[in-house]
Design a protein that fits this description.
This protein has a single domain, classed as TIM Barrel (Alpha-Beta Barrel). It is about 40% helix and about 15% strand. The chain contains 9 helices and 8 strands. The chain has an 8-stranded parallel sheet, with helices on one face. The structure holds 1,3-dihydroxyacetonephosphate (13P).
Length: about 240
């Protein structure tokens, strides 16, 4: 399975290094075979060879240039980063990234054969508008995306579940994942308030190929526990 940590805007470079070392040591010690991805802050990116893979949370779709405040391919190349998170709801809603801009990023990094973790998910008002409206909202986030791209991983993250401690019911997750699998056969992760206490039951669900964890992943031990759950399930 795929177990991913989105560190968002947390940790310094040295804390990130210590975090990565702790996870890497865990994977080696336990001979863990899960696919583990860690997305640090841009200023904490490092070149890492080992069992876990480091990815970028965001990057501009260009090699380099006049894009104040951004990083782009050149800065990722420096650390041999070949994995990127695209379309996270915090980018869509806090920074106002449009589907058009997201598609540009997707296509740019797809052409470079990056592994892309592509995030979709509905805000609360869309969920409350009923199933059909919710699914049509999510469908729009698939527009322009090559859903058969070989290095695509999709993460379903309901916006209202992110950082709130709220989650859909297990039945809901299973149901939505089944529908999303009809749009793409890419591995499908669930994200949104995953903790040590609920990770196992979510990982056990049909059509859940892994998890994308935010706040709970900041505790290396908790993140390792979740990786171990996945290993024990041997899906
Ligand atoms: P939380 O696990 O903090 O809810 O965040 C999930 C997320 O946004 C991962 O990308």
């Amino acid at each position: 399975m795929i177990i991913a940590a989105n560190l968002k805007t947390n940790f310094t470079r040295s804390k990130t290094q210590a975090y990565i070392t702790e996870i890497e040591n865990f994977l080696i010690k336990k001979a863990n075979t899960q696919k583990v991805l860690v997305f640090p802050v841009a200023s904490s990116l490092i070149k890492h060879t080992g069992k876990l893979t480091i990815g970028a949370q965001n990057a501009h779709p260009a090699f380099n240039g006049a894009f104040t405040g951004e990083i782009a391919q050149e800065q990722l190349d420096e650390f041999e980063i070949k994995t990127i998170l695209i379309g996270h709801s915090e980018r869509r809603h806090i920074f106002g990234e449009t589907q058009e801009e997201i598609v540009k990023k997707f296509n740019y990094y797809k052409d470079l054969l990056y592994k892309i973790v592509y995030c979709v998910g509905e805000p609360l008002d869309k969920r409350e508008a009923g199933h059909d409206k919710m699914m049509s909202y999510i469908s729009k986030q698939y527009e322009g995306i090559d859903t058969s791209y070989k290095k695509l991983i999709i993460a379903y993250e309901p916006v209202w579940a992110i950082g709130t401690g709220l989650t859909p019911t297990l039945k809901d997750i299973e149901f939505i994942h089944k529908e999303l699998k009809e749009k793409s056969l890419a591995p499908l992760l669930y994200g949104g308030s995953i903790k040590v206490t609920n990770a196992k039951e979510v990982l056990e669900l049909k059509n859940v190929d892994g998890i994308l964890v935010g706040s709970a992943a900041l505790y290396a031990k908790h993140f390792c526990t979740m990786i171990q759950f996945a290993q024990d399930l041997e899906k």
